[in-house]
């Protein structure tokens, strides 16, 4: 049942899917040309995932808000819990799809493989979990009209600010390093664990809020 709701979400934005796929393939190459430091390419997964996740989720939420699709779906055998779980699954499927697009792009520009490692992907996964772990419950609580401005702000700031920030960082010649009392493998594993925990806590909160909400 969950997968049917996820497919429904993608169908709502079918007019934009081709553009998003092309963006996920072309953006890594464009961004990589803006920096001479390959070590900074670890930000690539974060950049693409955040932009594409925000764009896709924003479009789906917009269509559902206009058509009151949530109320209609919850009047069917789909429960409110299932509806919320499908939202988080949609975000995760989009996450995996963007990573796959970056892997394809790395065959065209091998330097992109620098950012396709467990550490960079884990950091991106954690940031996505934090972002949507806050925004989804807020959207359910306060509505799309309130939360959409946060989405618009993030979608506007990230693409225009990342390039200048990277160039400014490179000009400083500063390198930060810190260590935790665990191995490198343990640190990477902790990012994935924290991301999963944040997601499930957020999903639980969203379900509780939605069960009490008047549709």
Short description, anyone?
The chain has 215 residues and is an all-alpha fold. The protein has helices at 2-12, 14-32, 44-67, 69-74, 80-108, 118-142, 144-172, 184-211.
Q: What is the overall pLDDT average?
A: 75
Most strands sheet: none
Order of helices and strands: HHHHHHHH
Overall shape: it is globular
Give the number of DSSP strands.
Answer: 0
**Whole-number tally of structural domains:** 1
Task: Summarize this structure as a short list of keywords or feature phrases.
about 220 residues
Description:
- With 215 residues, the protein is mainly α.
- The chain has one domain (2-211).
- 80% of the residues lie in helices and 0% in strands.
- The protein has helices at 2-12, 14-32, 44-67, 69-74, 80-108, 118-142, 144-172, 184-211.
- The mean pLDDT is 75.
Provide the fold topology:
Blueprint: H1 2-12, H2 14-32, H3 44-67, H4 69-74, H5 80-108, H6 118-142, H7 144-172, H8 184-211
């Amino acid at each position: 049942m969950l997968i049917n709701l996820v497919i429904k979400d993608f169908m709502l934005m079918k007019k934009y899917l081709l553009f998003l796929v092309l963006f996920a393939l072309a953006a890594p190459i464009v961004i990589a040309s803006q920096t001479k430091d390959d070590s900074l390419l670890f930000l690539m997964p974060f950049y693409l995932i955040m932009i594409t996740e925000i764009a896709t989720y924003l479009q789906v939420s917009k269509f559902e808000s206009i058509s009151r699709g949530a109320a209609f779906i919850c009047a069917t055998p789909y429960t409110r819990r299932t509806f919320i779980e499908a939202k988080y699954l949609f975000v995760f499927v989009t996450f995996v799809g963007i990573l796959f697009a970056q892997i394809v792009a790395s065959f065209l520009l091998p330097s992109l493989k620098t950012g396709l490692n467990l550490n960079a992907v884990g950091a991106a996964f954690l940031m996505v979990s934090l972002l949507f772990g806050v925004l989804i419950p807020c959207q359910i609580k306060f509505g799309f009209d309130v939360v959409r401005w946060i989405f618009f702000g993030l979608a506007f700031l990230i693409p225009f600010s990342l390039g200048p920030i990277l160039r400014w960082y490179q000009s400083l010649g500063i390198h930060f390093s810190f260590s935790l009392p665990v191995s490198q493998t343990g640190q990477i594993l902790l990012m994935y664990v924290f991301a999963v925990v944040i997601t499930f806590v957020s999903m639980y909160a969203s379900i509780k809020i939605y069960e009490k909400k008047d549709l």
